[in-house]
């Protein structure tokens, strides 16, 4: 049974760190299997995991995936035990560990994950998925929010027990809100066993949600500084929306028959009801040919026809064409009096408004190419060539068998994003919420401009945004080279070019939050690199055609280096568990369904913690049966011998074999840049004191502080610069090492 289930989230400046801990007891007189399962937001990274069995702790650290896989296979070949991993949730990722526990024993599982909350429809939304599988005597959820400015909105909706969207805005009667100050709040949820039974007879299964927003009445751009890093939050709420021209491209090919075409009709009926009167729109359907609705943009006819899909006239354009890409480049209409009149009315409307509408294309399809060009990568390239007007393309995937990876590549390379629309009774609400997110573009061609000598360019995250929508937020982070920091944000608004300035503020730092902004930067960098990686055609290793931010090139090695340095589990890294005690026990698992065995002593232990496939894009439900699969992070296990070898301090930097080739006149050239670029840094001499600097966490999840390289030379990185980079930290312009606090390094000679 579960003795307790605790969830604690600390949200600081939108960055959320969640610790989920549960203690499970096997009170039987025989060994039994126990499981720990957590449903994580899709954009979250696991940063720590540990298991305590019979007072022995197994603590995980992050390792490059292939190396962890090799060690795990060695463990399996030696007959180590295995556990079970599962994943099936709508728009989320499930982390599951199952293992047998001996009679009368207890096991504690602790999982930590981190994410940057995104602003959508005017609120930040933090979701805690609860599914303990039984009534729990001690169940607690605590969410602490600390922002720099006042928290204006704070709402805890009723527990979401259905997978589908619900417009019910009732508050959760079992949640308490404590406002400790205008910018700090604590939300608590601790239902008693009886209250849990009232919600669900077999235990809570749902989502605990906290929604909030902050005051930005006196600023649209907020820049905060901490420990040499900065983060920019930009949300220009005071602007009027840009006029937009929405083009709907609807797939009516054979693969869309049945439920999918009904979804499409329902979707269009929902979205058309959301159009603004001053917007323009057009509709094209395609299968073997393309048909374009013969529309008239006068206000009276727009109001009359909006929502009347069954009465639309479809022109006979492009009947002989078979390639969607070629047909979408232009529409040829006969020069009939009716068409000429419609064209004149359209031109007249443009002249009256005076500004070209902001182009948006919404593509509704299952992503399956049946006729003509059937290479999905070629289709992506063709669309990119045809999209000369830099139109944002948003792809909505219909059906359980949708080719979602293709739709993501198509949209990400064309300034948009993809969403999976699930076949359920809330399909219309899914579409409505999507369209409301993109319905009000406020700025286009948005750029963050800064003084070149103030920011380390190769650390800058995405700083050019195609569009900023109402209710959303643009986020930029990076590392500063000096204390002075100035800059502007520019973008095209309805009234012309809009410029925003900012006054940087120093974020308060405590021992508990030291290094927070650096982790926010690392998270955002990895997330954007992964997004760019997803946009690259499968057989193409070149960078995608994003904005001209050439300092931010996506490649696997950059993701791996950052993930190892900051202990994030990504598709390219894995969890490795370390037994921190002198005695050793093992429990192993893989994404295959090996049978779990009892936890027993072993001399050389390997514990492979669970990987997790991913589904969808937004962590907002708990539905079983997701379809999209991805490679799960592999995990291997080590014992204390590895822990000690990582920590052994050598007496002389000359024992670092790779260093001599890189040192020139007291400087060392290291590949520390986000995109693999080289930096010229200094090595400290004996005149520099052996003192702790900024707090950090080592790649083996040990608390530490950055120290000069010469005072913390570890055997684990003496033979390879690649092994050193996860330990690298900066001390001004000097090379530092994230040195575990339990060490007492001797002064180097």
Structure keywords:
single chain, Immunoglobulin-like, Rossmann fold, 4 domains, 10-stranded mixed beta sheet, VWF_A
Summarize the structure.
By secondary structure, this protein is α+β, with helices and mostly antiparallel strands. 18% of the residues lie in helices and 33% in strands. Keywords: Disulfide bond, Signal.
Overall description:
Pfam families: VIT (PF08487), VWA (PF00092). Keywords: Disulfide bond, Signal. The protein is of the alpha+beta class and 749 residues long. It has 4 domains: 291 residues, Immunoglobulin-like; 139 residues, Immunoglobulin-like, CATH 2.60.40; 196 residues, Rossmann fold (3-Layer(aba) Sandwich); 93 residues, 2-Layer Sandwich (mini-chromosome maintenance (MCM) complex, chain A, domain 1), CATH 3.30.1640. Helix content is 18%, strand content 33%. It is built from 13 helices and 39 strands. The strands form 9 sheets. The protein has a 10-stranded mixed sheet. It has a 6-stranded mixed sheet with strand order 19-18-17-20-21-22. Strand 15 and strand 16 form a beta hairpin. The radius of gyration is 28 Å and the shape is globular.
